[in-house]
Amino acid sequence: MSVKHFSLVAAAVATMILPACAVGPDFHRPAPPAVNGYTAEPLAPTSSASAIAGGEEQRFVMGRDIPNQWWELFGSESLNGLVKKSLEANPEIDAAKAALRQARENVYAQIGAYYPTVQGSYSASRAKDSETISPVLASGQEPYSLHTAQVNVSFAPDVFGGNRRQVESLEASADFQRFQLEAAYLALTSNVVAAAIQEASLRSQISATSRIVEIETKMLDLTKKQLQFGYVAGLDVAAQEAALAQAQQTLPPFVKQLKQTRDLLAALAGRFPSQEMQEKFELADLTLPQDLPVTLPSKLVEQRPDVRAAEEQFHSASAQGGVTTAAMLPNITLSADAGSIATAIGDLFTPGTGFWSLAGGLAQPLFQGGTLLHRKRAAEAGLDQAAAQYRTTVIAAFQNVADSLHALRSDADALKAAAAFEQAAKRSLDLARRQFDLGYANYLSLLTAEQAYQQASVNVVQAKTSRFADTAALFMALGGGWWNRSDMASKGAK
Q: What is the pLDDT, as a whole number, of residue 230?
């Protein structure tokens, strides 16, 4: 049989063997959780509303799909531009793409084991044998040269599917990296949106606190004038100085957080902190999304990239059970050698110089100190671990959505209460100031009104921020709409 014929036979054997059953468990995708909602109580269709900017009513639309660029719902061109820049320049995305390419190449490398291995070789030697032994060459020539050119073909049929299970495991690992890439996209966009909202909140809190400092400064000037005319005591001036200092003390932490948030946004966009960004964010420039899509619970496990990644880990662990089982079964190998040996390189492949051999072998592990058995048991334990981790990830996904829904309803109620408190505190402060100017109220009443208004102003900003931030968190908890993108992360990583 020639090498060519042997290769054809080996390829045919491979074709016949590949469709055969493989040892080990066949993986079946877990069914979605049998639940109809995210919260114990029925989800109200709308949230409460308040008559201030950012206090609009939000509607929960069950079953509506999530747009692929959900951050555009906040209506900020600056935010849209920064998200785009971040997706293009963030090194974590590049790392996730590289990990996906690596995983795919590992799959292709393992697929190569389905086919025969063909290796060509050439060797040359010069030798002289002892005269006490028979001459090596038929001609008796001493010394002599030997030139050997040969082709070796070897093939190990995948009789029990060990290689198929290994390929299956690696393919699942590649899909795991694909969903890790989608998770990296989702995390990056969510972090950019959250940081932008935080920056806008800090600017508003700095502005509100600065107004309070301005009010406290004017009140201190007024109190000092009243001290000159004997309308107040020195203790009142000292109290106002303390109130001003207290208000001023709250500014540096806000400024520090703002600087650090800007540094975070620069890092997310793949820049260094020293590279100043043009984008700046204010709460007034953001629009609160009013129609919020809520994915059906049966679809959540399809749309959460972390759940899909955990599923692929589960799949990979299942295939490893077949790999370890196949390692305990007989291994068949087929090989063929063909070539030519001549004393002169020009005589290679001339009549009479050729040789060939065919061989087959079967090896059955008999004793390896329990190594194969314990590897199989380790694979079974790994499968149990992956199954438990998948269930944990699914439960956490549903918890994330439920937490976001609870937060959004509470945020709306909190902003409504904070807005009412601010309005009441402002009326109280205006009234206390007029009464103080006319001498009908003491300074303690005015100071109390000032402090209440200061806290109320900051509370409104914080309540608005929570609505924006938790809205973004809901989009992230529902998977972020990656399945609707035309430029899928998996395609972009090729």
A: 82
